[in-house]
Every structure is written in C-alpha cells, then in structure tokens.
Design brief:
By secondary structure, the chain is an alpha/beta fold. Helices cover 35% and strands 25% of the residues. The protein has two domains: 3-176, Flavin prenyltransferase-like (Rossmann fold), CATH 3.40.50; 185-398, CoaB-like (Rossmann fold, 3-Layer(aba) Sandwich), CATH 3.40.50.10300. Bound molecules: flavin mononucleotide (FMN).
Length: 399
C-alpha cells in the first residue's frame, strides 16, 4: 500500500487534517502523521494514531520509535504533505532549519513535497512569508494556495487552509501522475445542454455532469492538462482543471471546436440535447402562443463532426441507451470514428443520469467489449482511464 507522510503544524485549522487523512484512506492510501511539538497543544497525537492505525511521530529523539526513523521512513512514502503549514514551518523549510522531526524529515525526503499554508492574512502576505514560499517553489516544492475568506482571527483575506478535497486532489496528482498522461491535453465535455424556446423555457435532460467531472478529475490527477466544457450543473470543477461553461448544444460545439486542435484525448461525456426549437424567441412567449411555436430541428452531432475532422486525437464517445446497447453503441462508433465507446443502459434503477453509480460496457472498433459492473462513477472513470492508457501506449509503440 502506498503511503503519505502528513506533517501537521500548529494552526487553528488543524482539525481539517482529520478529513485529509480520511480522504487519502478512501483512495486506498496509508497515512503516517508527523506533528510539530506545538501542534500537540491543539490536538493529542492519539487522535491521529487512532485514525491512521500508526503511531503518530512527534519527537526526533524517541525511545519508542525505530532508530533514525527520519531516514528509514523516507523509503516508505510516496508524498510528504504538510497541511496545515504554519508560517513558522514554511520559514524553517525555506531556510534549511532542521530542529524537530518534521523539518529534519523534509531534508531527508526524496519524494514530492506539497505544502498547504494556513495563517492570518497579514502573516501570509508578509514579504518574508512570500519570499519563503518563492524559495521553496524554486526548489520544486508544490503549494496548494490558501482560500480567501473569513479567518479564525475574524479578518477576511487570503490564508484560510484550502479544502481537504482540494489538498488531497493535488496530493493525488503528485502520487499518480505518470506517462502517458503527462504533457497530454484532455478535452472533456459534461452535463446536459439547454435548448431555449424563450428566455425562461428550455428543453434539457436529467444529466448531472458527474461522470464527466469525475473523468476530468481523474485525468488531471494522472498528470494531464484538462479542459472541461460543461453544460449547466451544480458541480464545482476540480482544482487545476480549466472550465468553460456553456448552455446550448451550439455553444458546446463552438467550445469543443475551439480546443479540438490542441487535444490529444477527447471524452464526450456530455448529454447533448438531440433537438432544439427552430426559433428561439427573444421575449417570453404567452402560454396561448406556445402551441404554435413548437417547431423543432436536430442539434448538431458534435461527436460525428469531431470524427470527421479527426487527426491524431483519441476519441472516446458515450452512448446512453435504453435497450439494444451493444448494437447501438457499435453503430455509433463506426459512424463517428470513435476509438472507444462507453455505453450505458440508463433504464436500470440507480445507475446512469444523476446517480453516483453507473454500470457501463466498453466497446472497441475491433468488436471487443468489456462490461464494468456497477460501481461509483469515480471508480468507473479510473477504469476508463486505464483503458485510455493502453490505447495511448499502443499508439506510442506504433509511432
Ligand atoms: C490559537 C492559535 C492559533 C494559531 N494559528 C496559526 C495559524 O493558523 N497559522 C500560523 O502560521 N500560525 C498560527 N499560530 C502560531 C503558531 O502556533 C506559532 O507560530 C508556532 O510557533 C508554530 O510552530 P510549529 O510551526 O512548530 O507548529 C497560532 C497560534 C495560536 C496560539
């Protein structure tokens, strides 16, 4: 099992470290906590020991730990994350001071280092702190920028510890990032589109965007640059991902076209509406007029257009069907020059649209298929990325 060393220093936001541990564990990673001595004034080490199942380290000189543990632990970990990081620990790391376990361990660590600062805004904006951060960045240390908002001291400004989700998302990229995803541009579409009749009425579908957002998150963690073109959803884009919001199928088509030439992999997970109103009214239609204005026409088939213009791009399509999945997915794949088709039968209960889980079948142009049983959309996105990795490696082998 891969392991993260989590350094915890004495910030008031220390309680968020518990959630950071839980999120890493839910990704199958072990966590070993190292606290500064002052952090133990806020929280007893035993809390972290209970959460992680491993004794929390505080002291550099400790009869109960392995001799020279600050060196032996180095080989066990894939990431050193310091969250929350005080101005003090950042200053010590930047100047090479090694006067406790955490700062000594930083100098010995060979893995990537990620720091999540948390402090009062004056402390964060102080030129000394900023200089320390610059110095560490120049040495290859990565930072999760703090949020701006109300701080524990009652002031408003930058310095609030980033959310545990954002911190873990960055950490996972440092652990998981690898060839062939690095230096690749992934273009992902997500969510529904809205086709307006007038300013207050539209047709759409129940797509929540969850599948596309999970794919974007996963691709970023694997090291790719990710552009997410999203229809209206209630979701927050994963940190690091470039988000372009659209409403209609036409807007989605324009956004996708704009980024297509840069893309290496395109994942069309959006549920684009199949039809739109021939005429969109600029003023709200009166109820009695509506029956006369409901003339419809098909929306552009974006995937088919991309298939026609395809150069080096790897094209992944999504087909939501209610029956005859294999037949319909194969048909679409051929017509649209798709390299991998993800088919899902949205008629089943608890899967597909708006659900956290899905059950899909992958289809390849050579007739192969693979059923992925019901699991979370996060896990499904990992399975899809594993297949994309195979396809990218095959291409690399051929070139
Ligand atoms: C209630 C309280 C809250 C504090 N919160 C922070 C904080 O959020 N960020 C920070 O840099 N220092 C904070 N400090 C100051 C640090 O605890 C202090 O600089 C300490 O020496 C840092 O030691 P360490 O980096 O070894 O944990 C706080 C102090 C107190 C008493």
């Amino acid at each position: 099992m891969r392991k993260v060393a989590l350094g915890v220093s004495s910030s008031i936001s220390i309680y968020k470290a518990c959630e950071v541990i839980r999120l890493f564990q839910s990704e199958g990673l072990g966590v070993r906590v190292i606290m500064t001595e002052k952090a133990t004034r806020f929280i007893q080490p035993y809390l972290f020991t209970s959460l992680t199942g491993e004794r929390t380290i505080v002291e550099l000189f400790d009869d109960q730990q392995r001799p020279i543990e600050h060196i032996s632990l180095v080989d066990e970990i894939s990431l050193l994350l310091i969250a929350p990081a005080t101005a003090n620990i950042i200053g010590k790391l930047a100047s090479g001071v090694a006067d406790d376990f955490l700062s000594t361990f930083y100098l010995a660590a060979k893995c990537p280092v990620l720091v999540a600062p948390a402090m009062n805004e004056a402390m964060f904006l102080h030129p000394q702190t900023q200089e320390n951060i610059r110095k560490l960045k120049a040495l290859g240390v990565e930072f999760v920028e703090p949020d701006t908002g109300y701080l524990a001291c009652g002031k408003k400004g930058p310095g609030r510890l980033a959310s545990p989700e954002t911190i873990v998302h960055h950490g996972l990229r440092l652990i998981k990032s690898r060839e062939p995803f690095r230096d690749k541009v992934f273009l992902v579409t997500a969510g529904p589109t809205r086709e307006f009749l007038d300013p207050v009425r539209f047709v759409s579908n129940p797509s929540s965007g969850k599948m596309g957002y999970e794919l974007a998150r996963e691709a970023w963690q694997l090291g790719a640059e990710v552009i997410l073109v999203s229809g209206p959803t209630g979701l927050e884009a994963p940190a690091g991902v470039y988000l372009e919001k659209v409403n209609t199928a036409e807007e989605m088509r324009e956004a996708v076209r704009k980024h297509y030439s840069r893309a290496d992999v395109v994942l069309m997970a959006a549920a684009v509406a199949d039809f739109r109103f021939k005429k969109t009214l600029s003023d709200k239609a009166r109820k009695t007029e509506i029956g006369q204005t409901l003339e419809i026409e098909p929306t552009p088939d974006i995937l088919e257009e991309l298939g026609r213009q395809k150069q080096r791009q790897l094209l992944v399509g999504f087909a939501a069907e209610t029956g005859r999945l294999g037949e319909r997915a194969a048909e679409k794949m051929k017509k649209k020059k798709v390299d991998l088709m993800v088919g899902n039968d949205v008629s089943g209960p608890g899967v597909g649209f708006a659900s956290d889980e899905n059950e899909v079948t992958l289809f390849w142009p050579d007739g192969r298929s693979r059923k992925i049983p019901r699991m979370s959309k996060r896990k499904i996105s990992q399975e899809i990325m594993a297949e994309i990795e195979v396809l990218l490696n095959e291409r690399k082998g051929k070139s």
